[in-house]
Amino acid sequence: MIRQLDSSDAEFDTLLTALLSFPEEDQAEVRSVVAGIIKDVRDRGDIALVELTNQFDRQSAEDMTSLQISPTRLAAAFDAISPLVRDALIESADRVRRYHEQQLSAMGAGDDWQFTDELGNTLGQKVKAMSRVGIYVPGGKAAYPSTIIMTAVPAKVAGVEEIVLCVPTPGGELNDVLLAAAHLCGVDHVFTVGGAQAIAAMAYGTISVPKVDKIVGPGNVYVATAKELVFGDVGIDMIAGPSEVVIVADDSADPDWVVQDMFAQAEHDEMAQAIVISPSAQLLQKVKALIPVKLGEQTRSSIIDVAIDQRAALIRVENLDDAFDLVNRIAPEHLQIALEAPEQYLEKVHHAGAVFLGADTAEVVGDYSAGPSHVLPTGGTARFASPLGVYDFQTRTSVIHCSPRGAIVLNRAAAILAREEGLDAHAESALSRVKG
Predict the structure, then answer these.
(1) pLDDT digits (tens, 9 = 90+) for 106-140
(2) Contact between 150 and 137 (Cβ < 8 Å)
(3) Beta bridge partners of 234
(4) What contacts 28, CB < 8 A, 6 or more positions away?
(5) Which residue in 100, 189, 268, 334 is the catalytic one?
(6) Taking Cα atoms as reference points, which of 59, 89, 53 lies closest to residue 182?
(7) Is-contact 151 187, C-beta < 8 A?
(8) How confident is the model at residue 435 (pLDDT cuts 50, 70, 90)?
(9) Which among 83, 241, 372, 411 is least buried, having the fewest CB atoms inside 10 angstroms?
(10) Mean pLDDT over each residue of the chain, to the nearest integer
(11) Nearest CA to 335 among 321, 344, 346, 322?
C-alpha cells in the first residue's frame, strides 16, 4: 500500500524524513568485506580477480584471458544485434555526443585560458583531459548498455585517450547489446569483472587491468563502498544510491502517465523511489486507484510492488509554491514537472539532478535518448553535486608567471601574510626575490 502524506499534517516533517531515509544495511560489515576485497586485489592482482569473480559471479575462469572481451568480439556483437536496436544505440550515442559537444563549447571548448594583469603577471589555467578512465556498469538484475553510452561518450568528447570497462556477467552470460555499445563508444578494454574487486582493479591496476585516473558509473552498495574507500588514490564521479523520481503534477496530468512514470523508476530495484507531489487530492486519488490495476501489467511487477510499498509516496500540498519548496528540500535525482506551462516553474527549481518539463517529457528519455548523461546525483546530493559531464573527465592546472614588477609586489604581499601565519621560511622564500 502506497504512503499518503499531507504537508499540512503536524507530523509531516517526521514522516518525510522517514520516507527519504534508507533502511541502513550493516555498514560496518559491508565496509569490512569491501576493505578485505580491495586489499586482496592489491596484494594478489589478477589471481584474486579470477577467484573473486568465480566466487561472486558463478564463473569458472582459469585466468584473466577468459574475463577480457576482445575488440573483435565487441565488433561481432555490434554486427549481430538487431538493426532496430543498433540504430537506437547509434541515435542515443549521437544525441549524447551532440549534447556534450555543446557543453564543451559552453565551457570555452575546454581550452587553456590566461590573462595579463596590470602588473604584467600572466595568470591562467591549462585544461587537460584525463589519460585513462574506468567505467563500471552494473550487470546483476539487468544489462545497461545505455550506461556505457552515458559515461563513455562524455569521456570521449572531453578528450580521454583510453577507457576501461568493467561489468559483471553472472553465470558468464554476455549481453551482445552491451558489447555492441562498448564497440560503438570506442571502449578500449572490457573485463567481465564486477563488484568491489572491479573497483579495486581499476583503482590500483593489475597485470591485466590498467590503473585508471578516475572511476565513474553506478553500482550496488558494495561498489559504492569500494568507490568511497579508493577515493583519494583514484578519482570518482559520485557515490550514488538507488534511483529516484519526484513528479509534480496537477489536474492537467494524465494519471495513467503518472503511474507509468512511477513504475518506470520503481522497476530499477526494490530500493528505487517514486514520489508524486500535487495540490490536487483528486489526481492523487486517481493515481492511487490505478497503481494496483496497472501493476499486474508490468513484467517486473514483483520489484515494482516492493518499491512502491516501501519507498513511494503521494504527497498533497496546499499549492504549487509549497510543492517546489518540497522539491528543493528533497533535491531529487529526477524531477518531472507535469503541469500546464511547465516552463514557468523551472526557475523555482534550485536542487535537482535533471528536470523534465511537461507531461510529454517522460523521465525515460533522459535514461536513453535525450542527450544529457543519466548518471545523476541521488539521495539529496543534487544540493551540491552535478550530472556527469565533460568537466568530470578534465583536470585544470593553474598557471602563474610573474613579471619583474609583479614579482616585487606579489612577493612582498606574500611575505607579510606568511609572517602573520608564522611560516618564516615562506616569507624568506618570497623576500629573496625582492632583496638586493
Answers:
(1) 887 667 889 999 999 999 999 999 999 999 999 86
(2) no
(3) 231
(4) none
(5) 334
(6) 89
(7) no
(8) confident
(9) 83
(10) 94
(11) 346
3-class secondary structure for the chain? CCEEEECCCCCHHHHHHHHHCCCCCCHHHHHHHHHHHHHHHHHHCHHHHHHHHHHHHCCCCCCHHHHEECHHHHHHHHHHCCHHHHHHHHHHHHHHHHHHHHHHHHCCCCCCEEEECCCCCEEEEEEEECCEEEEECCCCCCCCHHHHHHHHHHHHHHCCCEEEEECCCHHHCCCHHHHHHHHHCCCCEEECCCHHHHHHHHHHCCCCCCCCCEEECCCCHHHHHHHHHHECCEEECCCCCCCEEEEEECCCCCHHHHHHHHHHHHCCCCCCEEEEEECCHHHHHHHHHHHHHHHCCCCCHHHHHHHHHHHCEEEECCCHHHHHHHHHHHCCCEEEEECCCHHHHHHHCCCCCEEEECCCCCHHHHHHCCCCCCCCCCCCHHHCCCCCCHHHHEEEEEEEECCHHHHHHHHHHHHHHHHHCCCHHHHHHHHCCCCC
What is the reported pLDDT for 140? 67
Backbone angles phi, psi at 21, to 5 degrees: -85, 160
Summarised one tens digit per residue, pLDDT across range 57-105 is 999 999 999 999 999 999 999 999 999 999 999 999 999 999 999 999 8
Output the CA torsion 291→297→302→304 (10° steps).
Answer: -40
**How far, in Å, CA of 335 to CA of 308, rounded?**
17
Q: Please state the length of the chain.
A: 436
CB 271 within 8 A of CB 359: no
Whether 334 is catalytic: yes
Mean pLDDT score, 227-251: 95
C-alpha closest to that of 208 among 49, 37, 34: 49
Backbone torsions φ then ψ of 296, nearest 5 degrees: -65, -15
Distance CA 387, CA 237 (A): 9
CB 377 within 8 A of CB 97: no
244, 270, 333, 363: which one is catalytic?
333
Question: Which residue, 291, 263, 269, is CA-closest to 363?
Answer: 263
- Which grid cell is 56? 561472486
Strands 244-249 and 334-338 turn out to be parallel
Asked about 420 being catalytic, the answer comes back as no
